[in-house]
Structure formats: structure tokens, C-alpha cells
Amino acid sequence: MISIIVPVYKAEKFIERCVNSILNQTYRDLELILVDDGSPDQCPQLCDRFAEADKRVRVIHKKNGGVSTARNAGLEVVRGEYIAFVDSDDFLEPQMYEKMMEKAIAHDCDVVMCDCVKDFKDHSTVYSHDIRGGFYNLDQLKQEHYPHLLIMENVEYPATISNWTLLWKSTLNTTDMRYQSGVRFSEDLLFGAKLLRKAKSFYYMKGEALYHYVMNDASASHTYVPDKWNDYQLLHSRIVAEFGADKEFDFSKQIDLCLLFFLYNTLGETNGADISQKEKKTKMREILRDESVRAMFRRVKVLKLPIATKLKLITLIYKYRVGLALLRVYCRRK
User: Fold this and answer.
1) pLDDT < 70 regions, the chain
2) Nearest residue to 2 (alpha-carbon basis) of 116, 161, 176, 170
3) 37 with 69: CB under 8 angstroms?
4) If 311 and its partner were Cys, which of 47, 85, 301, 307 is the partner (CB 3.0–4.6 Å)?
5) Which of these, 295, 297, 294, 269, lies nearest to 283 by C-alpha position?
């Protein structure tokens, strides 16, 4: 059986499509755990109705705590041999879990991953990852995947950032496999990396886009949040705690690149925010003076990073904290 966890918050416009796409899967042996995260709309009642109509549906009602706490609440009660996540505004292809289970069983896989379709308002595009498809045993994971387990070499998200494209054995669902409470952004990064670090086998169904990720411009990940850097600092501290002293693989460079990636996100959104230039200047300088950032820049060789020339220039400006005013003007005109 597969246990599918869906955090639900302010999703009354989408939840029926999401739930139907799960319950109508060609793979029938599943339980759907709807975690009502204190949603203020009609979602709590809708969740209860789904449970009344289909015995495979279970509902948890809890106080609002964010998607991480909602997923954690689901992980505490799963009963299936495999676990999966789905976001409440997304939906699935009908054969998604049947196809993934075929790979899981055939290869006795700890983790199976498929691709997704990103659905925009006016078009859709298949999203795939720059790693090879197929089966990985433990040695192959160490050789091929560990070098970009936390972050890709070009300072982009790793493949397992899309936690909802993963199907994984519940034997990996130990007490340490929980989302970091209090982190609202990129929380999937640490969870996916920890999952692949625990796995002894992995299968990537490259090119099979079975999950529909609905692009929502109004989501928290696409808007300026004044205290986002605080979240990223907490997340980075957890990454250091989990991977900084790993005895089998040296993740130190990736840990630095994670902080650089968080810096790109925060400062880029600050540049584009609807706040005064004085506020932008103060915010950027405060972050760039952070000792963890300064230490990271002392270690990272910017010119050797496989990133675009423009991004290298921006990174050097961040590193040496010169030309920030010109950078703000440049970004404002783009």
C-alpha cells in the first residue's frame, strides 16, 4: 500500500481536482492522508466529505503551522509500505503510482523518482533533471549522485528538491526523517537530500512526466518576504548539522554552494521588491556582512563556478561588496 500525504491550506479551488487525481489512480491500494493545516476556508469540511465518500481517505485536523508541520503530521500516521507527497493545488496522471510501483518492485528500490509537468496559465512544459535515468545501486549513488546531492554544480536545486515526484519505502521513515519546523522556503531540499543519503537504491524515471506542478505566481516562493533570510539561515544550519561531519563523503563544498544559492534568492528578491532603495541597501549590506556569508565567500572560488558570466559578475559584487548601488540600478532597469 502507498500512503499519500497531502497538506491542505486555502486550497478549496483546487482540492477536488487533486483528490480525484489520487483516488482515480490505476493503482488502487493506497491511503490518502489529508492534513488540514488549520485552513480558514471550506477545506476542513471538504476533507471530511472526501473521507465519508471513500474509506481510503483519512483526515487530520491541526492548528496552522505550515507545510512542514503538516507533512510531519502525516508521516506520524502512515500505514503503507511506500510513502508519497502531493501538494493540494497539483494533480497526477492516472497511471503515476502504478508505473512507479512497477519500478520499485522490479528493482526492490528504496526511492523512485519521476519527472513532472509544469503547468503555467497559458502553456505547459516538461521538467526533467540533468542526471542520468535508470537504476542506481549504493555504489552508483555514491559515485554519481552524492557529488550533487545537496546542490548542483551550477548552483541550482538538486533533483530531489521535488519531493512530490518521489515514492519511497516506509522503512526509511525514521524519526529523523522529518521536515525542519519553522522553515517556509526550500524545506524540500534538506528532506530530499537526507532521503537519498539513507537510500541504498534509487530509480529515476527520466522523461516520464507523471506529476502536474501548477505554477502559482502568488505562492510564497515567488514573492518578497522580509525575513526570508532568517529561514535560509536556519535551513543552512540544519544542512551543516546533517552533512557537515559526514564520514563517507565530503559535502563541504556543496554546503557552501547551498548558502550561495540562498543568497542569490534572497538578494534577487530584495532587488525586485517594492521597497525603498534605502531599505534595499540596508538589507543587502546586512546579509552580506553576515559572518557565515563572508566565510563562505572566502572558500568559494567564484571564477571556477560553472555559472553564466553575468552571474559570476554579480557574485563577485556580492563577495567584495563593491558596486552594489550600480547593481541595484541595473536590476531595476531590467
Assistant:
1) 217-223, 323-334
2) 170
3) yes
4) 307
5) 269
Give the model confidence (pLDDT) of 31-74 as tens digits. Answer: 999 999 999 999 999 999 999 999 999 999 999 999 999 999 99
pTM above 0.70, yes or no: yes
Question: Which whole-number Å values give the CA distances from 176 to 7, 126, 172, 179, in the listed order?
Answer: 20, 33, 9, 9
Do residues 94 and 26 lie in contact, with contact meaning Cβ atoms separated by under 8 Å?
Answer: yes
Quick one: which of 101, 140, 122, 146 has its CA closest to 252?
146
User: How many residues in total does the chain contain?
Assistant: 334
Confirm if 200 and 219 have CB atoms less than 8 A apart: no
Which amino acid, residue 57? V
Residue that the C-alpha cell 508521516 belongs to: 75
What is the β-pairing status of strands 2-8 and 30-37? parallel
C-alpha cell at 17: 481536482
